[in-house]
Amino acid sequence: MSKMPFSILSTIKCSSGKNIIVKKYQQHVTNCRVRPIQNQPVQSRNLQVGDVVIEPNHHHIPNPNPNPRTTPHYIQDDFQNRKQKYYWCKELLPGSKIKYKWNKKLSPPMPAANVSEMLALPWVQIKNSEFPIKQTWFRLQLEKKRIPWQQGAETLSVNKESFLMTTLNMYKEINWHKEVKVHIDGDKVLDAGGLLREWANLIMKEIVHPESGMFQLADCEDVSYKINCEADTDEHIIDCFKLLGIVVGKCIFERIPLNIYFDRSIIKHIIGQSIFLEDIYYYDRQLYQSWDFLVNNKFEADDISEFFVIYRKSKGDYYELKKGGQTIQLDMDNCQEYVNLCIDYYTNISVKPFLTAFLSTLYSIIPKQLLSLLEPLELEMILYGTPFIDINDWKDNTDYKGAYYRTHQTIQWFWEILEQLDQFNLAKFLQFCTGSTRTPVEGFRKLESNRGNCSKFCIESVPYTKANPYPKAHTCFNRLELPMYETREEIESYLKAVIQADMDGQFGME
C-alpha cells in the first residue's frame, strides 16, 4: 500500500505564538481500515445525560457482543415510573445550537375519535408538531399502505446454512407491504411474527460483520456503524445494501426495534437532512477534532502545508475536493469551505453507490416524505425503541396463564432474579422471549405480535420435568412457558442458562 508523501505530524504556529503539534488531517484516511470489533471499556462512573445523572444499579460487565448498546443513550429522569409520558423536544441555545432533552407530555394522548382530523392536518403542521403527534400521524400514514392479511401473505424461505444468500435470491419477489412469513427450510417452526424479528436481526448482523467489508465501527462513544467508503462496489455488495434497505424499511413498517445502530450521517441521509461538523462527532472523533481545530483557531498559511485533496488509500491516488484542488492551499479564508467539502466527501461522495442502493429500497417501503418529518433523534427513537429495560414497566404489563398469578411464589422468584440482572443480560433475556433486545418507544404495553396486534408479555405455567426443565419462549406471541420450579435456586439456574446461551439462529417455537 502506498504511503503518504508527507510526515504524520506537522507544526502549526497559532496566533498566540505557541507551537502546537497536531496530526495531519489526512492521517485518518491513511490509517483507515475495517477494524475488528472491540469490547467497550468498563464504565465505573455515573452515566450523565444532559442534566440528569443516573446511578447504575449493578456493576457494569464488558459486553462481548457489540451490537446491543450497554450504555443507555436516551434516558428518562424517572426509570421507576414509566407511566409518565415523555417526549423529545428541541431547545434553541445561543449561537443557533440545538439541544434535545426529555420533556413531560402535558396533554393526554390523542383519542381515536380525532384520528380522521389528524390525517387531515397539513404536512407542514405535522412537521412542526412535537414527537408524540408526529409519531401517531406517521403510523397512521403507514397503515394506509398496509395490504390486509386477508389478501394473502408472502413467504420468505431461507436456509440456515446460507441465510443471507437465500434471502438475497428471494427478497425482490416479495411485496413488503404485505404480511411476510419467514419459513426455515427443513424446520417445522411456523411464523406468526417472531421469526420475522429474528430474521431481521440476523440479516443485519451478517451485513455489518467485519468480514463483509460493508461497514466499520464508527469512532465514537457508542457502538454504531458507518458505511465503509472503501467497500467493494461489485454487484453482490450493492445487492446487500439494497437488502439492508428492505430490512430497515420492514422493521419500521412493523415496529420492530433494530439491534444494530447507525452513525448520525446515515440517520440524516435517511431523513434528507444536511450533515454538519457536529454530526462528524458521531462518525469519527479524530476527524471532528481536526476539522473543529481548523475552523475555530487562527493560523498562518505558511504554518500548514495542506491542499484541497484527499488521499484514497484503496486507489493509491488523490481526490480533488474541487477543480484544481492540488494547487489550492488551505488558509484561514477557505478553511470552512475545505471542511465542508471533506464532510461531503466522507459521508456522501465516497459512499454514494451504497447510499443510493440502501435508500432506494428503504423508500420503496417507507416514503421519503414521511421520514423527512422526523428529526435525527426522533428517527432513532423509532428505529431503536426504548434503550432502557424497566423491570417495573415489564411487571405492570405482564399477563399470566395457567396456575400462575402475580403473587405466585415462582413468579415472585422470577422477578427477583430479573431485578438482579444488568441491562446487557436483561436485553439478552428480552431477546429470548420476544426476538428483540428492545421495546417500542411506548414501552412494554405496546409489544406486538404480527398484524400489529397488541400482544403483552405473558408467562404461562407448565409442569416441571427433568427431561425438559428449561423455560421455552414463543417469540411470535411474546409468551414464556415457565416450569413450576420448587426452589429459587432451580429457577435461577435455568434462567441464567438460557441467558448465557448463544441465541443467534435459534428461532422461535411458533
From TrEMBL:
Q: Which Pfam families match?
A: HECT
Output the Gene3D superfamilies linked to this UniProt entry: Hect, E3 ligase catalytic domain, Hect, E3 ligase catalytic domains
The top EC class, named as a word, is transferase
- Per the record, the coiled-coil ranges are none
Q: Which reaction does it catalyse?
A: S-ubiquitinyl-[E2 ubiquitin-conjugating enzyme]-L-cysteine + [acceptor protein]-L-lysine = [E2 ubiquitin-conjugating enzyme]-L-cysteine + N(6)-ubiquitinyl-[acceptor protein]-L-lysine
Q: Which UniProt keywords apply?
A: Transferase, Ubl conjugation pathway
Q: What PROSITE patterns does the record point to?
A: HECT
Matching InterPro entries, A to Z?
E3_ubiq-protein_ligase, HECT_dom, Hect_E3_ubiquitin_ligase
Query: Lineage from the top down?
Result: Eukaryota, Sar, Alveolata, Ciliophora, Intramacronucleata
Q: What is the name of the protein in this document?
A: HECT-type E3 ubiquitin transferase
Q: Which GO terms describe its biological process?
A: ubiquitin-dependent protein catabolic process
